[in-house]
Amino acid sequence: MKNAKGVVIWLLKCFVAGIAAVAILSVFSLFYYNHGIRKTSETGATDYSWENQFHSVGYEGFAWGFNDADGYNNAYMLGREDIDILLMGSSHMNAYNVPQKSSVSYLLNQKMETSGAGYGVYNIGMEGHTFYMCSDNLKDALETYAPHKYVIIETRSVKLSMERMEEVLTGTRKRTPAFDSGLIYYMQKVPYFCLLHRQIRDMCDLNDASLADDNNDAAEASDNNDSGGALENQAPEYHTQLNRFMEMLAEEAGSYNVKLLVFYMPNTCINDDGTVGTLGNPQDIAEFAAACSDYGIEFLDMSDIFLENYRQNYELPFGFSNTEAGKGHLNRRGHELVADALFDKIMEIEGK
Known about the structure:
By secondary structure, the chain is an alpha/beta fold. Helix content is 45%, strand content 13%. The protein has twelve helices and twelve strands.
C-alpha cells in the first residue's frame, strides 16, 4: 500500500510539474511563436483565415500585431466601400515576420495616400496560399471584397504544374483544412504545443525555410518532373493549359470590372563569388509573361529589381538577423521593394 501510495504521489507531482512547465513555456511561446489558430473562411476568399487577433513572431524576424475582424493582417484600416485594390498571396503577404507598418499592403497604402492617387489597399494574404489557391479563390474574393480598380496576386513560380492548373480549371481542388474543431483545435489554443509542432516539423525537414511555406520554382521543378526548368514549357500541351488558366483568371477579373496584376517573386541565391542570382528560368518567365499579356493580365517580375538592389545596396529581400541570409520570408527591405514596384507598375498602367 505504501509503495502504491508513493507511486500515485510521484505521478501527481509529475503531472503538476508538467502543467506548470507547459504554462511557463506557453507564456514564452505567446511572444516567440504565436501564429494563431486557423478558421475556415466563411466567404471562400481564402481557404482559411486567423481566428485570433494578436500575433507575434520571434523565430524568423521580430514582429507582432493584430488581425482585423475578418482574420487578415491589415493595420491600415479600410471600410469595405473603400477597397480599390485587393491584395492576394501567401505568407509573404500575410507578413507576420515584419512589423505591420512595414508590410507590402501598409506601405502601398501609404504611397497611394501620399501620391494623391488615393487608392485603398486591402490585404487577404494568407499563410500557405499558393498561386493556385489564390486563383481558385479569386471569384469568391472579388465577390466578397469588390475592389474598384485592381486585384493583385503574388506568385512564387512561373513554371506551373499541369496537374494543379487542371484542378483549378475543373473546380476539383481540395481546400486546405483549418482544423477548427476537435482535439487539434483545442491543442492549438496552447501556444507551446504550436511551437512544439513546428519544431518537430523542422527536425523532420517538413518546414523548409527556403520554401517559406509556399510553392516556388524550386518546389515546382519536382512537381513538373523537369529539373531543367524549361522542357515542359516547350510542350504544346503545357502552352495550351497555361493559356486556358490565364484566360480563366482574366475572365473572372473582367466579370468584376477590375484589372488583374500578377507579380512574381523569385528565390535568391548567393553565389560562391559573393554575387547574388535568382532561381527563376528566363524562358519560363518569358512564357508566363506572354500568356499574361495575351489575356490582358498585367505582369510584374521582381527578379531584376531584387538583383539591382543588391548590386547597389548589398541588401537581400529575404532573410532576417535570426535566420539564414537570403532564405525564408520577405524582410523589411523586401516588402519595401515589392510595394515600390507595385506602386510604380500601377502608375505606369494608368499613365501617371
